[in-house]
Amino acid sequence: MAGGKITADNQRNRSIRVAQAFYEALEAKDIDRFATLWTKDAVYRVPATADGSPGQLVGRDAIVSGIGEFFKLFGDTQFEWKIEPMLDPRRVIATWSLDIDLVAGGTYRNRGVAIIQVSGDRIAEFTEYFDTHAFLQTFGND
Predict the structure, then answer these.
(1) Which of 4, 20, 95, 136 is close enough to 140 for a disulfide, judged by CB 3.0 to 4.6 Å?
(2) Which domain holds residue 97?
(3) Dihedral, 88, 89, 93, 94 alpha carbons, nearest 10
(4) pTM, full prediction
């Protein structure tokens, strides 16, 4: 880093490291580590929720609280992910799949893709698409 300026390659590597830490925290169900990964005003978007409408959580506290509720339901959690850089060095795209044993019994399996935008060493924007049918089969109000 000449003159303290972050190069595109350095930012790209930083973005990949932040995304890697995100999935590691999810797999470990480490809510404290998860919380450190977000900017205070971060936005977590789900353009198509399980009921078909767009949804979002705004702010680190809302994101951590929302995801933390799911952590309470999860037993053994297996994640697989692949993170790829994008042209904008602050963004990465991640494809993922998960297999989770639920505390109350049963299994939740899903797959999806996320676009993660980093600011410094934190996630500023997170946009995720996943199999809403699989989500409804497990968590829907049938």
Answers:
(1) 136
(2) 2-139
(3) 180
(4) 0.88
